[in-house]
Amino acid sequence: MSMEKRELVIIGAGPAGMSAAIYGRRSGLDVLVLEKAATGGQINITDEIENYPGVAHSTGPDLGNLFKEHALKFNTEIRMVDSSKVELRGEKKIVITSKGGETNEIEAEAIIVATGAHFRRLGCEGEAEHIGQGVSFCAVCDAAFYEDLEVAVVGGGNTAVEEGGYLTKFASKVSIIHRRDEFRADRAAIAQALANPKIEPVYNSVVEKIEDREPEDEDDMRMLNLVLKNVKTGEISNLPVAGVFMFVGQEPDDECVRGLVKAEKGGWIITNDHMETSVEGIFAAGDVRSKYLRQVITAAADGAVAAMAASSYINEQLHLKATLLEPDEVKAFFYSSIDEAQVKLSNVAENCAKAKGVKIPVIDGYRNARMTEKLGLTGKLPAVAVIKKGVVAEVKEVKSEGDIQNALA
Known about the structure:
Layout: E1 4-11, H1 15-26, E2 31-35, H2 60-73, E3 77-80, E4 83-89, E5 92-99, E6 102-113, E7 117-119, E8 135-136, H3 139-142, E9 150-154, H4 158-167, E10 173-177, H5 187-194, E11 199-202, E12 205-212, E13 224-230, E14 236-241, E15 243-246, E16 250-252, E17 282-284, H6 296-325, E18 330-335, H7 340-356, E19 362-364, H8 369-374, E20 383-388, E21 391-397, H9 401-407
Parallel strand pairs: 1-2, 1-6, 2-3, 6-17, 8-15, 9-10, 9-15, 10-11, 18-19
Antiparallel strand pairs: 4-5, 5-6, 7-16, 12-13, 13-14, 18-20, 20-21
Helix pairs in contact: 1-2, 1-6, 4-5
């Protein structure tokens, strides 16, 4: 089986992945997007979206389709697969995909993981049928639809209690249903919630069933009935609401790089501001990474940043390979950009080379740590290295301008 080679492979076609594809293609990269479901990601289960700038109102599927059409406008290839897995083979980054029992291997110059996350579900009867139709997982997304109406929140952690407080800015009443006899959120969050007259705790209770409800009159907008069970007494009761928000946890869809890149507790991928993970050439964007706010707009922003960072990385790697590894022989100066003295010597090296009428690549060994390590120059900077067909033949450590003059002689 021949190895397919691509410049940028994006895993996931939600807002982060589509944004990355658009920016990647516009920067001139060869882009392949891998997706196992429908493009758009989690927004496909969102009935209405009113907080994405420039789109006053849209359904989730419609907005997802707009992202797809925009990416296709730039001739992005979107490939449907059953699964994707990232492997490192030496310095090569390989994405292994499966589709209908057949596997394919793709070598990528850079990879953006934009696989998103998913909300944990209660698993009770009627929940799945009412998602987007009264059952929500995002207060920021949907709270405004319940102005002056009664809603419920399921959960007892920080997210449930804090989002319950947020919902009171819109709803007339918020019932927070928790299976224990006290919330497990931070004390400050609990105190703030219990002091809010619009919040009513419903302790020791679980939701057994979510069902449609006939309104009692034309002003009654409580279209759902929550069948509750008291876990201590076994008593069954009904709670009529206009909508219910599930905050029983969220999990990243990180399977494709699990154990490969650094992540915090729960699996959320750790990145820097450039969306770089702990593995060089692998980036993460959107809900799968550790971040403060998970929304369509923040996912799209992540994707744009990741694509531009990946573009810079790819161009730099291709330049380094062409400059250092492919020529029969090259003499290059390596230094560290975090050492002021070495930065000054790098300027001297450039001026000396110019004065002698010779070309000498000046390489930042700190920024290009992997290449420096590959050439065996880690810990030897600053230095002039003679590289023959990708192999270091000679290393001359330099401490002064005189050393540089001698090394370039």
